[in-house]
Amino acid sequence: MLHKKFDFLIIGSGLAGLYSAYTAAQYGSVAILTKSKIDVSNSFYAQGGIAAVTDSDDFPQYHLEDTLTAGRGLCDYTPVDILVNEGPKRIQELIDMGMQFDTENGELSLGLEGGHHRRRVLHAGGDSTGREVIQFLIKKVLETKNIEVFENQMVYKLLVNNGNCFGAQSYDPKNNSNLHISSRSTILTLGGSSAIYQRTTNPETTVGDGIALGYRAGTEIEDMEFIQFHPSSFYSKKGYTFLISEAVRGEGAYLLNSKGERFMTKIHPLAELAPRDIVARSIFDQMQMQKEDYVRLSLKHLDADKIKSRFPSIYENCKKSGADLCSEIPIAPAAHYTVGGIKTGINGNTNISNLYACGELASTGVMGANRLASNSLLECLVFGKRAVQHAIKNKVTSNLSLNNKTKLGCNPKLENLFLKYINSLSIEMNTKAGIVRKEDKLQELLGLIEKINKTFPYEENEYFSFRMQNLIIVCKLICKAALARKESRGGHYREDFQSENEDFLTHSIQQINKELTFVPVEQKS
Question: How many CB atoms lie within 10 A of CB 309?
């Protein structure tokens, strides 16, 4: 086992990971561990942009109000206040570093997305904001001498002793090698878990490994019942899908059912730009009523040249799939964003000392029951910086013994069964813990999860066995939280409890070897 020491260990290479690493490099040596390649992450695929107040007609208070409204009463006030007020500073820092966002007539070009009452969404490369920002930061990271990147690393153990984290151990299945990294501070930025669903906009690596990793180590896991389904994901009979940015609807696209009727105008004052949970569920209802697998997104009435210019990547993807973005395209909701995750304080700090969580993996209290569009990339920047600033103040004087280190290996004979089981679970999660949930279906799902858990031929310290256990952990966390919340709110809709219930103005908390509990939402003081 290779052993290395760093001041900072960053696990994950999305926007939160890269930005945290680049920021931390000003204060010491940094290691980045990433599960695949450095450019594979949800951040890379983010199309819409970054929401932040940069226009003179907009104010942080407006952004705060839109965030609280979208969060359905479950946003904690202080972190939202921090997000909207510190966000513009982080954006300006990126611009000062050389990041180029799209402009129009010399001013930042701002998009409008669901739940926003002002144009405040910055974008780059039209509809390739995530890719542009990630590639910009990757270049910065690779140019920084005291940052070392380790790819193809599955982190399987956080090194925790007496409530303190001192690093992690990882396994590279391609080279069958183990790595032990000691660090003063460890920041988890591994992304969410939406790829455990059959229909998803996420890369296949996004299956909640970071959440399982934190859970095993003893972190508090918050609000896992809230999974955001993006309303507009391209639909094809073969199952191939890709994200159709919310910004497309922001430019005026209509949602039409199979009868050609525009249905959102009767459901919400913001019509197609209502918060995502409302739009996704409305589309789901139309699909059920019309007995169709999709609805249509119509852009026939919009300027075709403007659409091609604003959304070049989406236009090309549609064209390759035999559809014309400037006309009508088939869409359906898909699992997109894990709203909950590892519970953190306002500095990304967890209940384990020296261990931080940022980005989609974290539950900062910002997102509530339903993330406001394009707040996710901003959250990465704001709380990534705060995590590093908090970490540099830590005076870590002790370390873990290097004895009794676990080593992982791989049994390729388990791969086919592992793939069979995760495919089965993804289908069941989609149908029983998806946009609409019900107690009997959730109980059925828990039974299936337990059956798989009992029948998989686990081997000790084995790669596929470990991944299977992670998947079981994440699916159970979602199901148990969904069962416990006997109401409908945001990204959690119970067919048997269809209304919001004030008794559930609380966050669900799950922790290893403890019963699920609820804690109050933090209100404005």
Answer: 11
